[in-house]
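Side project, low priority. Logging it here so it doesn't get lost.
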Amino acid sequence: MGYRIKTISEILGIPRNTLLAWERRYKLVEPTRQANGYREYSEADLARLRAVKRFLDRGHRISEAISLSDEAKDDRGERLDNDDTSELCAELMSALRSLDRARAENRLRQTAGFSYLRRLDGIFTPILHETGERWEAGELTVAQEHFISSFCRDHLTAMLLSLEHGPSQGAMVVCASWAEDQHDLALLVVSIKLALKGNRIVFLGARTPHDDLLNFCRQHQPAKVCVSVTMPVDAAITVKVARSLATLGCEVVFGGQGLPPDLPVLDGVHWARTSGDG
């Protein structure tokens, strides 16, 4: 998974020129190069830079910060970092249920310096899951559900935009929701993860008509098509659409809790009921 220097700068609040100076002078990180020559930073690079910045923020000089961050490792040589975000999620959910945007934004600012992957897996995915469960249990009003969804959409969209939908030379991946499916936040999460893996994302979003999706794919020949299915759908129509997409020569992934059970094995088609399946 890779980040451009622009994104690293935004996540950490470190100027681009400072990052470049650290690379030249201290060999702090050694990013790889994309085909177009852009630097690509890994999750490990981001973690190292975040650790150094943490000591800088405490008043240490850069050389001291590098030394201290190197010492802050466990017996396996892995960097010590608290990955437990459950308390932060609970505080954030409380603010969102209260429709308190300012408090929610303040809580989310505590994730400054987190990688996008950690924000997705540690913050937004748990929040979306809890929202869905509370909605089904009748514990959220329409206003609360819309407010939480809007908050998450704003921040997830900002991540995808910061990544510029993935590198321009990456394999094209089309991400769309089922024709009658208005829920696309989980699809946004998947899109960000795919962009981090070096894919070029075309995000078509909610309620993408089947014919429009097929026509787009015929014209642009993507490497992969991801279709989100969060609500129950007809098995026969699902198989028909999947077969039509697969005949175009692209990899096809249908994902979501709305997929019917016992779908047949189809060449070029993968059924993923959870994000971990895809």
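Brief comment: The longest strand covers residues 172-177.
Revisit when time allows.
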